[in-house]
Design a protein that fits this description.
Oligomer: single chain
CATH superfamily of one domain: Gcn5-related N-acetyltransferase (GNAT)
Radius of gyration: 35 Å
Distance between the termini: 29 Å
CATH topology of one domain: Aminopeptidase
Number of helices: 13
CATH architecture of one domain: 3-Layer(aba) Sandwich
């Protein structure tokens, strides 16, 4: 559904009638004001003639003239003092007797902000009845609050319509006032959230950008879905025996079939999905299915303190044999620290980890083609898990820290709020590397297992680019 301009037909009947009533009222006020002014002119002329006759023909004319001047001067001084103590003019925002929906409280924003016309962006979503005039009523309510409508999307439902607005509102306007105004205009199931400059991109451009991102990298599909719908939870369910799963939409839960026969589940508890949104998500998943697994060819070079130059790149399913060989060269203690289970189970995880639809895996390759380290960034709902495996003889050379920084940067670029690493309490190398990321960390310990969570808010500017040799592509 493309962005729609606000219709200027039947839905504006109420607004047109209101405008006509205001014009008629303004005309009547203008005629009354002109009549009063004309009467004041005649009274002033008659008074001036009377005063002139008294001054010229009366014996106390000079005294009367001086007394009148003194009275006039005293009146002017008193009026000036009274105007300073009690300024006239229309009541300010929030004055007694004014409609709280027509103007926000003066305490809601600083005076300099109101004087400078400071504004903020909001995303508003509401359900309205499918009847003529409902959209016009809603737009008139927003106009009363001095809110500009930047864009509008409509999501048709069988018996109603979901309208999604991008608004520019006064910064001093509180959210409850906006919500109450929409409710009075007939909106229900109202949802608002602050917007930013990224939301100014129109929907067709956004969809093309997300489709391009998905086409270049299979691992970007969950990221594209999250950027399309905002704060959602994404879960991937593996294929089960029997018939392949069918796509479905049930209120706040959306299920989409994956190429392997499994499901991608999207959930948004406080905001049900619409059929329009279901069609958009389904189109992205079908694009990913048709193109098959894709991993971009990006790489960078490392020069450890001792040893040959190494290459860091994205892993592909073709790296399974080299990854199995890496497992053979690692000690049992190293494999247990990485996979947190029996050493014999390490090999069977590789098929899942090397599938780009589950996340991004990085490899560190030696000049002879062997792999000396693996790192994995696995999407997990609205977070992501970090994991690193470094061959024993290559440990303590900074490879693990370099890989963690690259994966944290990839997660920050994808808009993930947090990343976490699971480690045994004695894994001091991983604990120290996470601390050296210079990010806010949370620690949780349960039965000897340590979960370290790093918060990525604002980290995209502090973390180095994951691929300095190829900026802009990953």
């Amino acid at each position: 559904m493309t962005q729609s301009p606000i219709p200027a037909q039947p839905d504006q009947t109420a607004a047109v009638r209101l405008s006509r009533r205001r014009r008629r009222r303004a005309g009547a006020e203008r005629w009354r004001r002109q009549t009063v002014e004309l009467a004041a002119v005649f009274v002033a002329v008659a008074t001036a003639d009377l005063v002139a006759n008294v001054v010229v023909h009366g014996h106390d004319g000079p005294v009367l003239l001086a007394a009148s001047a003194a009275a006039l001067l005293a009146t002017a001084v008193f009026h000036s003092w009274w105007a300073q103590r009690h300024p006239h003019g229309p009541p300010g925002p929030g004055s007694p007797g004014t409609d709280p929906l027509a103007a926000p409280s003066p305490d809601a924003g600083a005076p300099d902000e109101r004087a400078a016309g400071a504004t903020t962006l909001w995303r508003l979503r509401t359900t309205v009845s499918e009847a003529p005039g409902t959209l016009a009523t809603l737009c008139a309510a927003l106009a009363e609050l001095r809110i500009s409508i930047i864009s509008l999307q409509t999501h048709p439902l069988p018996e109603a319509t979901v309208d999604e607005f991008l608004l520019r509102a006064p910064r001093s306007l509180p959210r409850p006032v906006l919500t109450e105004a929409v409710a009075r205009a007939g909106g229900r199931e109202i949802w608002t959230e602050p917007a930013d400059a990224h939301d100014l991109v129109d929907l067709p451009t956004q969809m093309l950008a997300l489709a391009t991102r998905t086409a270049l990298d299979t691992a970007e599909l969950p990221v594209a879905l999250r950027q399309l719908f905002g704060q959602i939870t994404i879960r991937q369910t593996p294929a089960k025996g029997g018939e392949p799963a069918a796509p479905s939409l049930t209120g706040p839960l959306m299920r989409l079939a994956t190429p392997s026969g499994g499901l991608i589940e999207l959930s948004r508890p406080h905001l049900p999905f619409t059929p329009t949104e279901f069609a958009r998500a389904k189109a992205l998943v079908e694009l990913d299915t048709r193109l098959g697994p894709r991993v971009p060819k990006v790489e960078d070079h490392l020069s450890p303190s001792a040893g040959p130059e190494l290459t860091v790149r994205r892993a592909t399913p073709d790296d399974k044999a080299a990854a199995l060989a890496l497992h053979r060269r690692c000690s049992p203690a190293t494999l247990r620290q990485r996979y947190h289970g029996p050493v014999s189970d390490a090999d069977r995880y590789l098929n899942h980890l090397l599938d780009p639809r589950h996340g991004q895996m990085l490899t560190v390759q030696a000049p002879d083609g062997s792999l000396v380290a693996l790192a994995h960034l696995m999407w997990d709902d609205d977070s992501a898990e970090l994991a690193v495996l470094v061959e024993d003889q290559w440990q303590r050379r900074g490879l693990g820290l370099d890989l963690l920084r690259r994966m944290a940067a990839l997660a920050a670029e994808a808009g993930v709020a947090t990343v976490y690493a699971v480690a045994q309490a004695g894994n001091t190398a991983l604990i120290g590397a996470m601390q050296r990321l210079a990010l806010p960390l949370d620690y949780q310990v349960s039965e000897g297992t340590l979960v370290i969570t790093a918060h990525l808010a604002g980290a995209a500017q502090r973390l180095p680019s994951p691929w300095p040799a190829a900026p802009g592509g990953h």
